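queue> holo job accepted (beta-L-arabinofuranose)
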Amino acid sequence: MPSSKPLVTHMFTADPRAHVFEGRIYVYPSHDIDAGVPENDEGDHFDMRDYHVISMDEVGGDVVDHGVALSVEDIPWAGRQLWSNDAAYKDGTYYLYFPLKDRNDVFRIGVATSKSPAGPFKPEPEPIPGSFSIDPCVFRDDDGAHYMYFGGLWGGQLQRWRSGSYEASVPRDPMDDGPIGPRVVRLSDDMKHFAEPVREIRLLDEHGEPIGLQDRDRRFFEASWMHKYRGTYYFSYSTGDTHLLAYATGDNPYGPFTYRGVILTPVVGWTTHHSILEHKGKWWMFYHDSTLSEGKTHLRSVKVRELRYRPDGSIEPMEGMD
Ligand code: FUB
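queue> job finished
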């Protein structure tokens, strides 16, 4: 049983998105650095400038760092801050989806392509039209359709898109109790555009009521992930300032999704983030914490643990500090 040790220690890594490509586990993390930017609630201290892809033949196997897969210097529309990315494969091409602030300091989502899951990836000249906010997760459904889930509050700017267009004056932490849902959109056949208008996902409580912003132990904050288990869609996410990984389930990729519980209690550090993957008959949760940096919020390390389901399809919660 692999212990919860960092997968790599020669660099800081975070926000792991794991996939099986070409029979191997590829992980697409953020590459944390100490850029010397003071910490604030906008997340300016997460000033990452490139991505490395890491891979292993199985959990517990040797981990390979494939080097720089994409750098901010190569992205024509770049402002700053390469945050959590994700990858997908279709028809011989790998697609890397990444959030980045443009030159107006507004987060957009870009896409880059490669013939190898390890990159290097070549970015498109412009962000995906109509994209905004952070933390893209790209999910391939059984019928071959790809969906992007995205969004993040506070520094991720999702609250500023509530009206449908960007409003810089919206406060970082709105105090009303209305919901702000994660977003979902089906990708076009070329994987570089949205095929339809972006939809806001409804996250519901056990009574079928929307989970409001002040329900801070259950509300969506960032780190969307979608996976399917026994025909059910599992949408999982971070609750942000209550530092939980939680999940909700539904019967189709657009939701609504009904809250089911906590997957991971708080880890060392502020952020929590994850992906869930089946490999060789077991389910795994990739996540991060800040133990290696002794608690520095912006210097995190990717880890992995086995994830277990109960017979009713619920996920056994795990302790973040273990
Ligand atoms: O790594 C920067 C940001 O921190 C991510 O985009 C969020 O999900 C949080 O982990």
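queue> The longest strand covers residues 12-21.
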